[in-house]
């Protein structure tokens, strides 16, 4: 609050400061100066007292000096000429026998921040670097950085830089850390401190002497150093090992960042081990009393879960929300819970999230419902039961988010459509916001034949279209009415006519009007043409639910660890939600990896895989993971090249579905010469694999983990205990050769696969060798079955196909034996 008697107070203070009687009494003089600082803090302009305060700094009282220096540093820029009067006093204080006075004088000499005073400051600062008192050296080192900021474009004195480098070996750890900070600031344009082996080992050996923030600074600077040998690398990691379990979270985070920086390129196993060891400190930070610390820890845990999805699985209860926690903490915890859901804890997690759905904060309730929807992509039945119960609450904000969540769930999991359509009845009366109504209209349009009252709900929307303010709702209403008309024309014809008439004749929004004109002209072309445009290919319900996004390599996010980047990122579910939401789907299959139709010869048995496979080339990293009977079969081809499997570039679920279903079109359709050539470059192979377990009763995550070890990515599973049981997967094959020579050239092929188990004899595809093995079933009372494997490859590479099938067969046998 501004001081009301400003001018009178300044005059009174000037008289008091100039009064000889006040100056003679040290206590009264100090109290008067304290009043000046108090008035200054209240917003009164006391710059007119600058000359009186300059006189007051000539004292032996340290407290009075500190008060005067606060005033002088605040108003020096407004009085640059009078500030010259202070320099003599400050330079004199730099020679004071009291180290506190010397350090105080140096600090305030640089805090004046006047370029005209630089020439007077350099000599005291250089002397301060060699001072016998550590507190003076600390101030002098930082003073050079402040001096550089005053004149950033001037040349840096090499003698000063050399002196600062030599002071890295100062006995005081604070001086050492201040030297690092000063050199970082002064050598910013050159990349900062140059760290060699001697400096790196010196900093590591003195790391324990520094305080928390000093250790963080040292660890950050050490990220620039790259060990020359592997032995040196492990020596550094051994020195850092105690700091990895530090009770101070900033030190632990900085140490882990250095670990990832050193190990990510070539030692992923060491990086993973370091991540696992840090879960204890991170969990402790999640229980911190500081909300900011808790939020930061949660953001970094989300970062770790991108590479280690099950890292915190055993501690999922630590992420249950507290009643008094802020909304942003609750939302982050729910995002982490979604990542930690598995078969063992899904019931408890869903019960906990269900309680949050009725939270007093609408944002928290909506976040909980969205989290249930994301879990529903793997556990649809349980989640749909909860979502259906929430619709019965008839609360506007809850109903809106539930309908939007159901929209996303139906898009990703088509097998949920019937349950969702049954639950939609009556919710149109509760929806008031535009996003909820758009989601409802989309569901009615896409699945209008399954919702008995769909035409009548749309009729109610059409009757109120004149009062509708949202253009998005109108465009969605047009699309929904058109789709329902195609499947139920008798009930929707009149409604569609009135809606088109309004949108064309009365609507002022040009986007809505143009869409209505498009539909009107499309109807003139005929019903079949309209149906072909509006009712495109839908997802195959047998694809099942998505297991989740694949684990990312640590190197993809290691550079952003222990920075502000994880805090700036949006919701963790944004990425996964964008894959399933209709408003965010991008269907852009890459032309270079399009799969054409399967060859007729392959379907007729001409391309079936021979059991007596010749030696197939494979990468060493893959062969090491295979069981002993199969490892010897993977050998380099005659040209010295080796086959490797890779997950890059990744395929989205939409791209996979488009490529897989696109190859199942009519193979007898007329094609041009170019299309026939592309077809000849593709291959489709089918074979049957005997397994000693019942696939549809086993855990999908076990098979997914086994395939991931050999760089085969699973895209989708059918729900457990469901027949027919399907798994969809893909990988890329590459030939690696230092000297390309046919047939082992440095080429890449895309391989898509399907595993099918029908549970009966009809699902088998047998060749001659398989028939000979037909009598050897159910040994020792164990259940056996046959999994039909269908593989598509483009471009065609028979050697790569044999190598892939060998790896896949070996992996299935390994899972079967375990």
What portion of residues belong to β-strands?
Answer: 5-15%
Oligomeric state of the chains?
single chain
Q: Compute the CA-based radius of gyration.
A: 36 Å
* Termini gap: 75 Å
- Count of DSSP H/I helices: 40
Shape: extended
SS content category: alpha+beta
Fraction of helical residues = 40-55%
Keywords:
6 strands; alpha+beta; extended; 818 residues
Kindly describe this structure.
- With 818 residues, this protein is α+β, with helices and mostly antiparallel strands.
- The chain has 40 helices and six strands.
- Strands 1, 2, 3, 4, 5 and 6 form a six-stranded antiparallel β-sheet that branches.
- Helix 5 packs parallel to helix 7.
- The protein is extended, with a radius of gyration of 36 Å.
- The relative contact order is 0.05.
- Residues 643-813 form the Beta-adaptin appendage C-terminal subdomain domain.
- Residues 763-787 have a biased composition (Basic and acidic residues).
- This is AP-4 complex subunit beta-1.
State the gist of this model.
The protein is an alpha+beta fold and 818 residues long. The protein has 40 helices and 6 strands.
Helices and strands, with pairings:
Blueprint: H1 6-18, H2 20-24, H3 26-41, H4 50-56, H5 62-75, H6 80-93, H7 99-111, H8 118-129, H9 134-150, H10 158-166, H11 173-186, H12 197-205, H13 212-222, H14 230-244, H15 249-263, H16 268-277, H17 279-286, H18 291-305, H19 327-340, H20 346-356, H21 362-375, H22 380-391, H23 396-412, H24 417-423, H25 434-446, H26 454-463, H27 471-487, H28 489-505, H29 510-524, H30 527-534, H31 565-568, H32 573-580, H33 600-603, H34 620-623, H35 628-631, E1 642-646, H36 653-662, H37 673-680, E2 683-691, H38 700-709, E3 713-717, E4 725-736, E5 748-757, H39 768-772, E6 785-794, H40 798-817
Antiparallel strand pairs: 1-4, 2-6, 3-4, 4-5, 5-6
Helix pairs in contact: 1-3, 3-5, 4-5, 5-7, 6-7, 7-8, 7-9, 8-9, 9-11, 11-13, 13-15, 14-15, 15-16, 17-18, 18-19, 19-21, 20-21, 21-22, 21-23, 22-23, 23-25, 25-27, 26-27, 26-28, 27-28, 27-29, 27-30, 28-29, 38-40
Membrane topology: Peripheral membrane protein
Subcellular location: Endomembrane system
Main location: membrane
